[in-house]
Amino acid sequence: MVDKFQKNDKMYSLGFPSNKCEFIAFNQESPMMQGNEGRFFRSLIRGMLDRREIIKKIYAEDAEGICFPALSLSSFSIENNSDWSFEKNEIQNRLKGFVDKDNDGFLEDAEGRKLMFRIVVNDNDFRVAVCEMLKAKLMKIGIELEILVVGKGVDSFSESSYYELFESVSNLKNCDLLYLGV
């Protein structure tokens, strides 16, 4: 996305403070996000969401990584983002129970179910691009990410647009992550 703007010398960016923010929420009712395995997957996804990379590649460095709603000393802090990353060997060790049985590049469990997450995001080019970045990272370790884009034309969530957006999702329990902006 950034390339389109950087190549056009007639465009420039002005920065100004905003009260808008974006965050990914984990659906705690999803079986994939529960128990010790869920804790591992939540930590893995947090580690793959490199806010500095997102700000540079998606937002052309015209954004700021914040810790909202967490305190800056918490593990969610951008300064502590590396605490959530895993070494490749550790990831492989934690995913031992999953094998790519059908050689499609994605891991399956013992019953043949694909290791996959579903993320719901509203129809916002920047947020969809972040989801695509996360999808590419997960794909490298054999995890599929299905991106469910809903709420055409809803850029941020007011109370009414929030309900309209989630009414368009047939069964919220079938998603593991939500990418929200306020």
The gross shape turns out to be: globular
Major beta-sheet overview: 4 strands, mixed
Structural class, from helix and strand content? Answer: alpha/beta
- Quote the beta fraction: 5-15%
Give the number of DSSP strands.
4
What is the average of the pLDDT values?
A: 76
Distance between the termini: 22 Å
Q: Low-confidence parts lasting 5 or more residues at pLDDT below 50?
A: 70-78, 80-84
Textual characterization of the structure:
- About 8% of the residues have low confidence.
- The two termini are 22 Å apart.
- The protein is an alpha/beta fold and 182 residues long.
- It has six helices and four strands; from the N terminus they run αβαααβαβαβ.
- It has a four-stranded mixed beta sheet, covered by helices on one side.
- The radius of gyration is 17 Å and the shape is globular.
Can you summarize this structure?
The chain has helices at 2-6, 35-48, 51-57, 88-94, 125-140, 159-167, and strands at 22-26, 116-122, 144-150, 177-181.
What are the SSEs and their pairings?
Elements: H1 2-6, E1 22-26, H2 35-48, H3 51-57, H4 88-94, E2 116-122, H5 125-140, E3 144-150, H6 159-167, E4 177-181
Parallel strand pairs: 2-3, 2-4
Antiparallel strand pairs: 1-4
Give me some keywords for this one:
182 residues, alpha/beta, globular, 6 helices, 4-stranded mixed sheet, 4 strands
